[in-house]
Design brief:
With 120 residues, the chain is mainly alpha-helical. 51% of the residues lie in helices and 12% in strands. The two termini are 32 Å apart.
């Protein structure tokens, strides 16, 4: 699983986006920044948590689709008249609550202060 990009801001003002484990040398001042200063367990734990959120919403969507297909087979085409109601509920009630939950979790994530490494 690939993790989220890490934003590294050099003291001189340069910014770069790195993968976990990557080392970046600032082109302006020559400082080296190493993302392995972030605790590995914490970083991958966060990635796992965010993946769980995505899987939850995909699972809910698949469950709704399966229920609709089963009802369509059992009751016929008139079930599809309720599709706009379900889609409206999904877009106006379920997804905003899910997004709010994910944003709250993302805001409470830790931030790390990386230190530049000593040059060669």
């Amino acid at each position: 699983m690939r993790g989220a990009r890490i934003t590294v801001r050099c003291d001189c003002g340069e910014t770069n986006f790195l993968d976990y484990g990557e080392v970046w040398t600032c082109p302006s001042c020559g400082r080296r920044w190493n993302t392995t200063q972030i605790p590995e367990e914490e970083y991958w734990g966060i990635m796992h948590q965010m993946r769980q959120y995505r899987l939850q919403v995909m699972g809910a969507a698949v469950a709704v689709a399966i229920v609709f297909v089963m009802l369509g087979v059992a009751m016929g085409p008139r079930v599809w008249l309720f599709a706009p109601v379900v889609i409206t509920f999904w877009l106006l009630v379920f997804m905003p609550r899910w997004r709010r939950k994910v944003r709250l979790a993302a805001r409470s994530l830790p931030t790390w202060k990386l230190r530049p490494e000593e040059g060669p």
